[in-house]
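Quick start: load a record and inspect it. Here is AraC family transcriptional regulator:
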Amino acid sequence: MTLTLLSPPQTPARSPLIQLEDRWRHPGLSSHSPTTTDAGKIALTRWLHHGEAPLEASNDGCGTFHCISLNLKCASLMFHHAGRKLVHGRVPAGVVQITAPGTRVSARFESAMDVLHLFVPQQVLAECHDDLFHRRHAGDIVLDDPKLIRDPALERLGQALAVCKTEGAALGSLFIDSMSLAIVSRLVARHFSTPVARGREPSALPQWRINRVSEFVDAHLAENISLADIAASTGLTRMHFAAQFRRATGMRPHEYLLQKRIERAQELLRTSKHSMLDVALGCGFRSQAHFTTVFKRLVGATPKHWQTITLDAA
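Running the structure step on this input writes:
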């Protein structure tokens, strides 16, 4: 096997994978924000209020985007939806609230707040509906019930997003897309009140499609690979692919991608004399530090230590 040497990329300081909001429920103008040219992507942002003093905020609605709010910590607030008081008091962690497009909301935060906001375009809602019910929905989908939702599965997905500290656009974006789509899919199923659909197990991804995934990932391992890229290689939508892939392999797509990158790194460490940085970059990691962290977590030893032991035993 040959490895093409890569020079360390000259890139500016990395932005956090989940952008902080400057204004409540405003995703801003970053690359993570929903735009008319990126109608198939969920934008994910985080609202933090440290609670030194009460804070009032309002928002006139997100145009054509639904705003899904997922509370990450117990908090105290007053929340008005479309001019009607919806909440006044303590709100536990894990609670979800959905605001339909163009709906005015306002809040008075009386304690510290930590909230994830998902801005969901119509195209993603339609995609989730198609995959859940195997038919297109007539007209736009409007999730118009603003009542608070308690769902342990949604809480776990939100917490997984909140603690996502993965560096590197490829892996981090793939993880965020997978978790965000899972949240939206569950809410779409809930909205249409179909207990059968909500409890239905997805079919497993057939072996020929798994083979396509393996071939695609192997061929592009040093590149930024998104969930949409992998799904497209199988001819499926992102959500449909992620559910079927996990059913077939027991792994989420981002976990599989990590495993494949570490396996490639082990092969290179056994057979090449390139530096750790070149191995890291050649396997799709953005830095040697991130490579070392992931390698140690999955293998149980640092790359250098593993290489030394492996070569000594040969």
